[in-house]
Each structure stands twice: as structure tokens, then as C-alpha cells.
Amino acid sequence: VSRRQEWINTAVDAVKKRTAIYYSELLTLAVEIGEKDLVDTIEQLTQRLEDPFLFVIVGEVKSGKSSFINALLESKEEICPVSPAPMTDRIQQIVYGETRREEDINPYLKRVELPIPVLKYVGIVDTPGTNTIIAHHQEITERFVPASDLIIFVFEAKNPYRQSAWEFFDYIHESWQRKLIFILQQKDLLSEADLEVNKDGLIKHAKEKGVKSPVVFAVSAREEQEGKADISGFAGLRTYIENEVTGKKAHALKLSNTLDTGIQLLDKMDQLVELRYKQFDADRAFRQEVSQSLDADTRLLDKQINQLIENITSSYNDVTRRTEEELASGLGLLKVFGRTFRAIFSSEQSMASWLEQLNANLQDRLETNLRERLQDGIFDISERIQQMSRVVDMKIQRSKTILDPDEDIFQDIAKARIDLLEELRGTFKQFLQRPESFADDSIEKSGAKLAPHVATGTGLAIVGAMLTALTHGVVFDVTGGVLTAVGLLFTGISVGWQRRKIVRKFREEIGKGKDRLAAELEATLTGYISKIRERIEAHFKDFDEHLDREQKSIERLRRQSGNQRELIEQERKELKKLR
Ligand SMILES: Nc1nc2c(ncn2[C@@H]2O[C@H](COP(=O)(O)OP(=O)(O)O)[C@@H](O)[C@H]2O)c(=O)[nH]1
Ligand SMILES: [Mg+2]
Fold it and tell me: What pLDDT was estimated at residue 417?
């Protein structure tokens, strides 16, 4: 691993820098989504992006691991202490540092920082020996093996069958499929022939253990450090490492993996955003259902109002036609019998009282007939309004929760949503119970007295009484006006009046009254209903705002994720060109 080697190709390095930026964007997304595992994974991967390569060296005590490291890194200084007696009694993590510094991480692990440039690119984990650290396998495995770029098994060239080394091999090979090589160290102590035999033996053994094509290098740290580079065996090893592990190609491969992982992370995050969308979609559907159900009820109510008006006006017609007939026939008699009529009534005073009686009868009939008719129609309308309110209540109570507020994912949103719904449920229940929710201000303002049960009734129960008060108000207002006008007409009649003219005037007043009756009933009833509907809809103000915000947030999240995906895909293509 030459220091002169261009470790990181500038182009690849640029990709790496950009990849770091993509990952910081992924992290922002993951933090917003709130899934902890995802955040951790992205943080670790970002870290790894900046980390140097990591080699983990394992093998028995005195197999020559420390000497191997010193030779491999071409350091003039001794990076790892070498001794005939086992020197390394604990795991050493050797990393780059501005000055030499040692730190005990725990009883089994020491961190050594050395100002040796090559360590900027390769971090080394030197282990004491598989025969002494069995108890601490876990430390090495969990801390370093998953993050390692290369695991180097060092054997004494004389004996590559040491049991503890192979036990450790078994231990890590099963669960962590890392790149690994085998080193036969101290080859200077063996003849070429013996070395070949042991090399073949090692390859065979490794294959039996499930390594498809074992990579074995025979080296001598001693020869390398004595300057015998041509025979030390390190040249071939370095070439291999450069090509397969640390070189431009390997570096690009590693980055490409990181980018692939980025896409997978985006897939995962998109799924979570989709979950939030599903919740939004369900909420929006629920909200639309409420509106649609209100619309449907409003249409039905319109029909019912029309029906009521039709009934009332036809009843009004019947009653007034009868009076008109009486008026016409009474006046007819007057015409036919002339004086006789006058004799019948004996004076104009008597005619006036006859007309007065006629008007009084009209009033009686209108009151009884219209009241009856009103009562039927109001009953239906009142039922429908109550039904309309209850359906909304039912829909609110039944709205579906997809984003679980007890889970990490979008927890703030899920909680805010639940709070909003609870609030809506609570206030709507109260709304249904409060009489003022269904009261009409105009009734109080006009000072008209409500029937006694209205004052004590609660919520929905007062709808019927409200409608009664409102419609009766209209009917008596209008009929009162008609009766006054007819009364005035009657008082103005003198004996000389034409019968036809009187009946026409009467009919005119009656017609005006009928139009007013229809118009005012309609205005009053639709006015009341739209007021109730507005009050119902007003409860959804916060929820509607929430839906608006959700739509915007989800669109933004999708856009951000889509942008990142596009950038990463593009980078993958760039990287393919470099490889
Ligand atoms: N002949 C020979 N001896 C070596 C070589 N490498 C290491 N040794 C010796 O083997 C012993 C153990 O070496 P060391 O690197 O400390 O082994 P470790 O315990 O595996 O780290 C020391 O006495 C070294 O001098 C080598 O290539 N040739
Ligand atoms: Mg050692």
C-alpha cells in the first residue's frame, strides 16, 4: 500500500463529497419522518463515508500479526509493538492522529492515534491472538467486523492449522460475509517446497470451510523490513489490496453500494410518507363524506320545504276560495234582490257587520287549517335536521386512524391529528346538546315567546319547537297582513260598489298574501337550515386547516424524496462511467 499511490481518485472523491450531501438530505428527511432506526442507519453510513478503510487483523499469538502490519504499512516507526513474548494483550485500534496518543477505551480495547499519513486511508485493528481473546470475541465482532473492509487472517507459515484461528473464522464467517484474505507469515523460516505444501493445505481447508476461492499470500515481514522487497511477498499483496479493497475501482464500488443503499433508504421513507398520505386520504374522504351527507340532507330538506309550502298554499287557497265564494254570493244576492237585500240587512251598518263576520271567519279558518298543515311539514323537516346532525356526529366518531400516535413515525403529526379529532368529537357532542346551537336569534330578538318546553329542551330537542315558532311567526305575520288588508277593503265598501270590483280587489289581496306566504316561509326555513349547517361546518375549521397543511407537507416530502432519488440515480450513472 504505497503512500505515493493515489488513494482516492479525484473523480471518485467528488462523487463521495456529493454522496455525503445526499446523505445529509436523507438524514433530514428521516428526522422529519421520525423513524429512529432509519436515522441511526443513515448517520452510521454517513460516518462510514468519511471513515478510512478498516482492516482487522486476526490470528494466533506470535503468528506475526504486528510485524505484518508494520511491514504492510511501510512505516519506519514501529506501528505495532513486536516482541517474542505476546505483546499485544488487548485489541488495538490504530488510527490517524496529529500526535501520538493512546487511550484505554476499556480493559480489552486501546485506541492508538499515530501521525502516520497512511493511517489517514487505512485504519487497523490489531488483535492479541485468537487463542487469548476468545472471551472477547464479541468485542471484535460487534465493534469492528461489521464495519471492516478487509479481514486478514494471519498464520505462521509453519502451521496454518491452528485451531483457535479457525474457530474464530467459523465464528465470524457465518454471520458477517466480509472480504477476507489469508496470510502465511514468516515464510523465510520455511523452504519453498514446504511453503507450497502448507499453502495448498490452507486453501483446501478454507474451501472446506465454505470460502469459494480463498486468497492466500505468503509473506515475510522480516524480509520486507530488511529491504528484500523482491522476495518478501508484499508486492503481490499490495497489488491485490489496491485492486480489490482500497483502489479506485474498489472505492467506486463502495460508493456505488452506498448510493444503492441511499435508494433503498428512499424507498423505505417513501413507504412511510405513503402511510401519512393514506391517513390524509382517509381524513379527506371522511371530511368529504361529511360534506356530501350535508349536501344530500340539504337537498332533501329543500324538497320538504317545497312540499310544506305547497301544502300550506293549497290550504290557504281552499280557505280563501271559500270566503271569496261567500263574498261573491253574498254580494250577488245584493245585486239580484236590490232593495230586498237592503231589507234583509236593513241597513249599511248590517252589511258592514256581515263583512266583518266574513273576515273573522276567514281568520278562524286560516288559523286552524294552516296550523294543522304546518305541524305535519315541520315534523318531517325537524326530523331531517336532527338526522343530518346525528349522521355528522356518527361520522366524526368513526373516523379511521392509520398513523398510530404511539409509534415513532410522524409521531408529532399523528398526535396533533388525534388531539384535533378528540377536540372535534368533544365539541360536536356538546354542540348537539346545547339548545343555543339550534336556536334562531331572530326569535329572541323579536321577543316572540317560545313554547315552555323550548326553554328547557336541550340541543336537538328544540329543533321542532324552533321551526314551529319560526313558521308560525311567518304565517301569522302574513295572514295578519292579509286580514288587515281585507278588513280595510271591506270597510271601504259602500253600497254603490260593483260586486265584480270588490271580488277582484279581494282576490288581489289574497294573491299577494299567498306569494308573501310562500316567499317568507321559504326564506325563513332555508335561512334556518343554512344557519345550522354553517354551525356544523364551523366545527371543521381546524380540521380543514390541518388537511390543507397535510396536503402541502406530503407534497413537499414527496418532492424532496423525488429530487434526492433523481440526484442519486444520476450519480450512480456517473459512477458507472468511472468504473
Ligand atoms: N523469522 C521471522 N520472524 C518474524 C517475522 N515476523 C515476526 N517475527 C517474529 O515473531 C515474533 C512474534 O511477532 P509479532 O509480530 O509480535 O506477532 P503477534 O503476536 O502475532 O503480533 C517476534 O519475535 C517477531 O520478531 C518474520 O517474517 N520472520
Ligand atoms: Mg502482536
Answer: 96
Task: Tell me the C-alpha distance between 93 and 147, whole Å.
Answer: 13
Closest CA to 176 of 144, 143, 145: 145
With a Cβ cut-off of 6 Å, ligand 1 is lined by: 59, 61-67, 82-84, 86-88, 129, 185-186, 188-189, 220-222
Distance 108 CA to ligand 1 centre (A): 22
Q: Nearest residue CA, atom 3 of ligand 1? A: 186
Residue 74 has a pLDDT of 77
Q: What is the DSSP letter of 64?
A: S
**Ligand 1 pocket test, candidate residues 62, 130, 188, 234, most atoms within 8 A of CB:** 62
> For residue 453, what pLDDT is reported?
47
Asked if residue 79 lies in contact with residue 114, where contact means CB atoms within 8 angstroms, the answer is: yes
Tell me, what's the pLDDT at 1? Answer: 43
Closest to 59 measured CA to CA, from 150, 177, 193, 162: 162
Residue 62 Cα to ligand 2 midpoint, Å, equals: 7
Q: What does residue 158 show for φ and ψ, rounded to 5 degrees?
A: -65, -30
Low-confidence ranges of the chain (pLDDT < 70): 1-10, 75-77, 83-89, 132-142, 175, 334-349, 444-458, 494-496, 578-579
Helix (H, G, I), strand (E, B) or coil at 114: strand
Coil vs helix vs strand at 183: strand
What are residue 75's phi and psi, to 5 degrees?
-85, 140
The cell for 178 is 466480509
Phi-psi region of 311 (alpha: psi -120 to 50; beta: other; left: phi over 0): alpha
Place of cell 316561509: 521
Q: What DSSP character marks residue 437?
A: G
Contact 178/206 with Cβ under 8 angstroms?
A: no
pLDDT at residue 98, as a whole number: 92
Return the pLDDT at 455.
46
28: enclosing H helix or E strand = helix 10-33
Question: How many Cβ atoms are within 10 Å of 226's Cβ, its own excluded?
Answer: 13
Distance 71 CA to ligand 2 centre (A): 13
Nearest to 171, CA basis, from 203, 133, 200: 133
Give the chain's length. 579
Set of cell numbers at residue 287:
371530511
For ligand 1, mutation pick of 61, 63, 67 (most atoms within 8 Å of CB): 67
